[in-house]
Amino acid sequence: MVPGYLLVQYFRRKNYLETGRGICFPLVKACVFGNEPKASDEVPLAPRTEVAETTQMWQALKLLFCAVGLQVSYLTWGVLQERVMTRSYGATATSPGERFTDSQFLVLMNRVLALLVAGLTCVLCKQPRHGAPMYQYSFASLSNVFSSWCQYEALKFVSFPTQVLAKASKVIPVMLMGKLVSRRSYEHWEYLTAGLISVGVSMFLLSSGPEPRSSPATTLSGLLLLGGYIAFDSFTSNWQDALFAHKMSSVQMMFGVNFFSCVFTVVSLLEQGALLEGTRFMGRHSEFAAHALLLSICSAFGQLFIFYTIGQFGAAIFTIIMTLRQAIAILLSCLLYGHTVTVVGGLGVAVVFAALLLRVYARGRLKQRGKKVMPVESPVQKV
């Protein structure tokens, strides 16, 4: 990061955009200065399909397709994530087997496949002309790598239901980061629902006893890792919001962020010598290789389902689907891996998801009221 920062500052001080020439000029221009399209060069994104243009049956089938795709992708991803990070591979009657411990290697696999899927989509589907300086993706990439690493590592110390609840409560730090990074203001109902989410998460955490394999110290480590995940993920989402000012598509964003994420994780793994060890672990345990590959496939195609669902039905429908997915994920984890939830903890979970659905309802009413007053452009949605 430091050499890259120094290079960017050097090229800007030298006014390289005006004085630079040679074979490296297009590369430096794209990475440091960007290539903002002129108004005549812009390729408009395809407008969202209106319900009136197609039959209700076709719209219902598309909604079912999106809902099933999102649920299958991310429920499978959640189950496999817990399996990979909390269970042993190669266990026999005489040997306990061994656990996979390097979260960075999993992050790399996820990002490589997502990069390939995004690149293929950019080639096959028409995209707007790219104008953002490439180096700006590196900030979101670095925070994205850290958030993913914290997410995987946290499963070594806390249960999967706790992690899901922490993800559901990230609206609170997202609002804080929005004030700090984007200077946003929020409505009273947004603060109310954020407070309800905090109460629900507190009820769940305080009522649930520690896991059999956990101690208070390791539980604290897990909560600190979850805090790191939420903080880094909140920064990522707000930084990506700022990048969308360059009028890029979501798939272009996906490609740029995953490209730098691959670079960062490869360099880190090579420096630690962990890339070869992760490959050897895959060679020793074919079951792990299958799980890691399926995990990456679910993550990559889940992102495409996100973009398609938001484009067709809007962010409100997408949020409802994903909120239901989180509730089902907690239920699945408790059934498959034996996590216990007390009555008070169950009430806390209900409070959290009720607050999330209340946010969706309030935001939808606010948009309807705004449409009656004056037409406004729908903002570019970011996930």
Automatic annotation (TrEMBL):
Transmembrane segments: 63-80, 105-125, 189-208, 214-232, 253-276, 288-308, 315-338, 344-362
Gene Ontology CC: one annotated term: endoplasmic reticulum membrane
GO MF annotation, one: 3'-phosphoadenosine 5'-phosphosulfate transmembrane transporter activity
Top-level taxon in the UniProt lineage: Eukaryota
Pfam (any one): UAA
Record keyword Membrane present: yes
Keywords noted in UniProt: Membrane, Transmembrane, Transmembrane helix, Transport
Keyword Transmembrane: yes
Localisation per UniProt entry: Membrane
Entry membrane topology: Multi-pass membrane protein
Protein family: Belongs to the nucleotide-sugar transporter family. SLC35B subfamily.
Protein name, entry field: Adenosine 3'-phospho 5'-phosphosulfate transporter 1
Source species: Fukomys damarensis
